[in-house]
Amino acid sequence: MIKRCLLIAFCTMWSVTLYAVVDGHQYPFDNDEQALRFKELASELRCPKCQNQNIADSDSIIAQDLRQELYEMVQSGKTDQDILGFMVQRYGDFVLYEPPVKTNTYFLWFGPLVLLLLLMLIWVVVIVRKRAATDVSVKTGQNNMQSYHRLLSDDTSNNQDQHSQ
Q1: pLDDT tens digits, residue range 129-159?
Q2: How far is 140 from 145, CA to CA, in rounded Å?
Q3: DSSP assignment of the chain, as one string?
Q4: Dihedrals φ, ψ of 96, to 5°?
Q5: Rounded to 5 degrees, what are φ and ψ at 53?
Q6: Looking at the whole model, is its pTM more than 0.70?
Q7: pLDDT bracket for residue 16 (50, 70, 90)
Q8: How do residues 94-133 score in pLDDT, each as one tens digit?
């Protein structure tokens, strides 16, 4: 009797379909490949509402809808390119964590670099201006000292001239 129960339990475990668990939700698949593709695609697609989470991690309603749509497409045998193409067509390049380099995505790809270069340029200009201002004040101070010494020497010579007369 115990052997029979163990055999039934063992057979039941092997006959259960595979599950992909994403954000606490279970999606049954026929094989490991489909489950793995589902998990990878769900982690590659950005949630349109949350924007900083993929649809695998997001709790938003739209992410749940996208996961269900993704599940159905994977189950129907669509390729990764077909699925990603559909998502981009429907939600735009923003739905991808790595959007393609196109004219409308230049800011996403090159914006941080341009911003960094701009900040470095501003930093260099500020430093150059501070050094120039320091150099001018040092030169002005030296000129003032020279003028003061000339004034003293002129005053001393005038005093000597007045005393000699």
Answers
A1: 888 777 666 566 566 666 666 666 665 555 5
A2: 8
A3: -HHHHHHHHHHHHHHSPEEEEETTEEEEESSHHHHHHHHHHHHHBBPTTTSSSBTTT--SHHHHHHHHHHHHHHHTT--HHHHHHHHHHHH-GGGBSS----GGGHHHHHHHHHHHHHHHHHHHHHHHHHHHHHHHHHHHHHHHHHHHHHHHHHHHHHHHHHHH-
A4: -90, 140
A5: -130, 150
A6: no
A7: very low
A8: 888 787 888 887 887 888 999 999 999 999 999 888 887 7
